[in-house]
Sequence to fold (286 residues):
Amino acid sequence: MKWITREHPKIDRIACPWLIKRFIDAEAEIIYVPFADVISKAADLNAIPFDLPGVEYTHYDDQCTFDYFIRKHQLKDAALDRVAAIVRGADTDRHDFAPQSAGLEAIFSGLGYNIKDDHELLNLGMTIYDGLYSWAKQLYQMKHTQAGPVEQMLLEVYHKYIKQNKSKKAPEWAIELKEMIQDQVDTNMALSLQQVSGQLEINPAYLSREFSKYFENLSFGEYIRKLRIEKAMHLMGNTDYSLTEIAYLTGFSDQSHFTRIFKKQTGQTPTLYKKNTGKSKMDTNS
Fold:
């Protein structure tokens, strides 16, 4: 059986031939031609076209051609489903589908840059997808990192966040990330977007773009500053710490920075807020 698609493959047009050869037709012939020639060449060669608009084997909704092959040929395999999520995320730039998607895209972008022969790239890709399938079948639950409590918590988020559904309800990663950040309020709140995205293995640009949808319409930085100020207000109302100590405990570089952000968030200086808080306590006790 012959299968034909566009030249210069990257993700789906390497993954689909691997799927065909490993699970559908071991003797399949894969043909790459310029985009404009796919349909005419398919007719001439009696080949089945895939991964281009207007043919049966293509993208549907948020799923890619790899997903359609699995559904069409009724391939019931949990490991293939794990690989499909990775391929889908890499091919559609939706790294929320699987944390490995960003890495897969990076690998094949680099290989495509270095290797100009499509079949040479396919041969190497077959080996890479064999390895990915073995991981998805036998090794996906193994942990590579021996991490401390905070790092382990981030890794647990990363393993769970792909359970996002299509509704407007916040995805699992957003819910657990919010809990993780809240847990860190008792520290000096030193988390950064780059650190979080690195630990979660979520593309930082995607995380930055999606964050505000689930965190009070605030950016990551704005949300962290809001929590710092809320913690500072709590400390001012319930402890005898100095403002310098409170600035340190809430992760600000110095008291002047703390004062500037506090005033921007609340409309008054920390000194005035602390004074008013103390006055309110006295009025309550009188």
Q: What stands out?
A: The chain is about 60% helix and 5% strand.
